[in-house]
Amino acid sequence: LMANSTNHDSDSLDHAAMPRNDKVLYELNVTGRGLEIGPSFNAVAPKRLGYNVKILDHLDTAGLREKYAKLHPENIEEVDYVWQGQPLTELIGETQAFDWIIASHVIEHIPDLISFLQQCAALLRPHGRLSLVVPDKRYCLDIFSPETSTGQLLDAHHHRSIRPSAGQVFDHFANTAQRMGAICWDNRETDKLQ
User: Fold this and answer.
1) Element (H, E) at 174
2) In this predicted model, what pLDDT tens digit does every residue of 21-66 receive, in sequence order?
3) CA 12-14-16 angle, 5° bins
4) What is the C-alpha to C-alpha distance for residues 2 and 100, in angstroms, rounded to an integer?
């Protein structure tokens, strides 16, 4: 396991040069109890590497292995909690239970971001940390999607949205782009967007 990095001098680190998982785990007490939300087939802190982690996903283990059979089903972790949109504290059955939470490429799929952040705060211990990995829309399928406004976040929270609206689903498919058949690319790619 990566050592607890809470004592790093952040001014002396080159964050851009850090490997992805090191960035995600940066300043997390990885020896403590964690929750990884939505890792699918690519957990950042897998149980098999010794992390004391619970896994929360949208399908159970068998469902994820079926869905991602053509990718890396051998990397799928045993799922502890299957999330169907209910409050996370209700699903997990406790509060102040985790030293860290990781949600990689999750928040862009959450209809009510405000509630999600509040629920994560309730699940974290007093000095716990939430580590989010958020895609850069300049280099992925969302390049043509409009940015979410604060008003849209407030409306979703007011309505306690647990599923995207029909309009949001339409906008997603209407604005989705690919570059050479891929839904994400790096800043060196110059091929035409489809």
Assistant:
1) helix 166-175
2) 999 999 999 999 999 999 999 999 999 999 999 999 999 999 999 9
3) 160
4) 14
Q: Assess contact for 160 and 112: CB atoms under 8 A.
A: yes
35 and 102 Cβ atoms separated by less than 8 Å: yes
Both tokens of 48, joined, read: 């098999």
Cβ neighbour number for residue 178 with a 10 Å cutoff: 15
Among the listed residues 37, 36, 31, the one whose alpha carbon sits nearest the alpha carbon of residue 52: 31
Calpha distance 134→13 (Å, rounded): 21
**pLDDT on residue 1:** 32
What DSSP string describes 119-170? HHHHHEEEEEEEEEE---GGGBTTTTSPPPPHHHHHHHHHTT--S--HHHHH
Q: Are 37 and 101 in contact (CB under 8 A)?
A: yes
Give the CA radius of gyration of the chain.
Answer: 18
Name the DSSP letter for residue 105. Answer: S
Three-state secondary structure string covering 14-32? CHHHCCHHHHHHCCCCCCC
How far is C-alpha 96 from the geometric centre of its chain's CA atoms?
A: 20
β-strand partners of 146: none
